[in-house]
Amino acid sequence: MAFAIGFACLTGALLLLSLAIAIAWRFLPPTFVRHCFGADYFTTYELDYIARSNRLVRMAALMRVAAFPASGKRRGLETAWRLAPPWFIWFSRIVLPLYLVLFAALLLLIITLLLMLDGRQG
User: Fold this and answer.
1) Confidence band of 122 (pLDDT split at 50, 70, 90)
2) How far is the C-alpha of 18 from the C-alpha of 102, rounded, in Å?
3) What's the CA gap between 55 and 121, in Å, rounded?
4) Which among 6, 25, 57, 104 could bridge 53 via Cys, Cβ 3.0 to 4.6 Å?
């Protein structure tokens, strides 16, 4: 029973954060998005892949660059955070780590449940 409650809470929290990320995407300035996903920083193949991948992946990449500017060093995006609105930098610094922690907790819960079920059968 506790696993079901924990699973429901973690899944609900992840869905709410995903919804908040999707809503935040609508309010991002297009100049910031175009700057980060420009041909100066990515190859044509990478840009095609990014265009086809889901919005959550693209948003996670933008959030990482805005929240942790040093993470864009390899592609030359260390200063991209200057184009991001201040609310997005704040939002990214809170939501991205929280999302990762909740996702790790959900995986840990699922692994624990599978190990317990496997132990009962053996």
Assistant:
1) low
2) 12
3) 41
4) 57
Rounded to two decimals, what is the model's pTM? 0.77
* Rounded Cα–Cα distance for residues 20 and 97 (Å): 14
Q: For 22-56, how does the pLDDT look when each residue is reduced to its tens digit (9 = 90+)?
A: 899 889 888 888 877 777 777 778 777 777 766 77
8 A C-beta contact, residue 65 and residue 72: yes
Q: How confident is the model at residue 77 (pLDDT cuts 50, 70, 90)?
A: confident
Tell me the longest C-alpha to C-alpha distance in the chain. 58
User: CB under 8 Å to 14, separation ≥6 — which residues?
Assistant: 99, 102, 103, 106
